[in-house]
Amino acid sequence: MMPVFILRLLNDEAWIRFIGDKNVHSIADAVRYLEAGPLAMYARHRHGLYAVELKDTGQPMGLCGLLLRDGWEEVDLGFALLPEFRKHGYAEEAAHATLAYGRKALALQRVVAITDPENERARRLLCRLGLRDQGLRRMPGFEVPLDYFAVDYPAECLP
Hints:
It contains five helices and six strands. By secondary structure, the chain is an alpha+beta fold. α1 (about 1-10) crosses α3 (about 25-45). It has a domain at about 45-155: Aminopeptidase. The radius of gyration is 15 Å and the shape is globular. It has helices at about 1-10, 15-20, 25-45, 90-105, 120-130, and strands at about 50-55, 60-65, 75-80, 110-115, 130-135, 145-150. Strands 1-2-3-4-6-5 form a six-stranded mixed β-sheet, with helices on both faces.
């Protein structure tokens, strides 16, 4: 089920527009994406993208997690949901839980997030999560400047 879900999510119009085309066009591509992306990141950093599932059924809705991208020094919050699960508060719930995990279990002192400047829904969500807009930045691996958000946790808030 997971490769089928990944294939669908990564080919969603909003994913391609706001996150980028990952060239995942078959089940085999989806398996390779999982192995080289989320699974490899878990092995290296103890965190990555996690499946967001409906509590009652376990149906996958999207991904949310903490990424440490190649060439970056800061951990990045990322999230995406399939269209039918948007506008129900699931992304906010998943992102809140992910940030709490990063702060409590991983003792992260700072988390950043990036988004396409035209992705108003993501921008509003990041503000509701307590991240502050730091303006446009050129980021390694991206061709255009992106909106850069950050939240810092004081030492007394860490475990």
